[in-house]
Amino acid sequence: xxxxxxxxxxxxxxxxxxxxxxxxxxxxxxxxxxxxxxxxxxxxxxxxxxxxxxxxxxxxxxxxxxxxxxxxxxxxxxxxxxxxxxxxxxxxxxxxxxxxxxxxxxxxxxxxxxxxxxxxxxxxxxxxxxxxxxxxxxxxxxxxxxxxxxxxxxxxxxxxxxxxxxxxxxxxxxxxxxxxxxxxxxxxxxxxxxxxxxxxxxxxxxxxxxxxxxxxxxxxxxxxxxxxxxxxxxxxxxxxxxxxxxxxxxxxxxxxxxxxxxxxxxxxxxxxxxxxxxxxxxxxxxxxxxxxxxxxxxxxxxxxxxxxxxxxxxxxxxxxxx
Length: 322
Fold this sequence. Notes:
This protein is an alpha/beta fold and 322 residues long. The chain has helices spanning 10-18, 36-42, 58-62, 82-87, 100-116, 118-126, 153-164, 178-183, 192-198, 218-223, 241-249, 269-272, 288-306; strands at residues 2-3, 29-30, 48-51, 69-72, 91-93, 145-149, 168-172, 187-188, 201-204, 229-232, 255-258, 277-279. It folds into two domains: 2-98 and 287-306, NAD(P)-binding Rossmann-like Domain (Rossmann fold), CATH 3.40.50; 100-279, NAD(P)-binding Rossmann-like Domain (Rossmann fold), CATH 3.40.50. The chain is 36% helix and 13% strand. Strands 8-7-6-9-10-11-12 form a seven-stranded parallel sheet, sandwiched between helices. The chain has a three-stranded parallel sheet with strand order 3-4-5. The protein has a two-stranded parallel ribbon with strand order 1-2.
């Protein structure tokens, strides 16, 4: 059962036919308020549930006795209570890697935009001005330093583009070895503080976990250079938005380019009111190809769990028993 998914499921039906299992899985699509009550009512009797942003709470999982798999048609699974799912033998899956190329390109675009003042200059032209000095004088990118916070598939894909721009690359990634990071063309630093003090651009690529919530706050912005900029294509709550507004307003850092915000989908007015920001509406993952890729990966996991009775290849809660 697909809940609050915009697609009409024709592509999914085509995939099931291509895989020879169209008679073994019945697809159903439902819409309603983004509430536990609405999801519970819509998903009664469903063995599998697919969502994007809707929260699948422990309450939802406990009220769906037939549920065997729940999937996010995206990468982050912080909107699913994986603990309760594991306790009840429910597989949690996602669509890892479906938008690596897209987010990497978007992050590179934001880096170029915020450092070159492109959006800021565009705004001035649209106001009827023709002033190449409408944005602060930019620095040459060659020889500057970008710090990547965590080093999964997206920042790894960015390395070639960053090097082509002439940037030095630092990485803070506790789960990666210095040898691996060096083999990718970057240099590891031991702490986030070290990365913040040495970087002209800080680009965030960490998942939203209890330990990464508000990873960037007042103290972290104070450690950044006053000429540095922040780029976030990870999750909005990784950044303390109130602290970011204060840091930008008071000149603690020079700018911020964001594809995600803490209060989305409500537009972050305190941030968008500042000239030194560039904000896109959580759109970095989008392309015709990534959309289809995510849909295929999620459906494949349901076939693996419900038809083939195997562990899904994109299983998130690896400890689940079924």
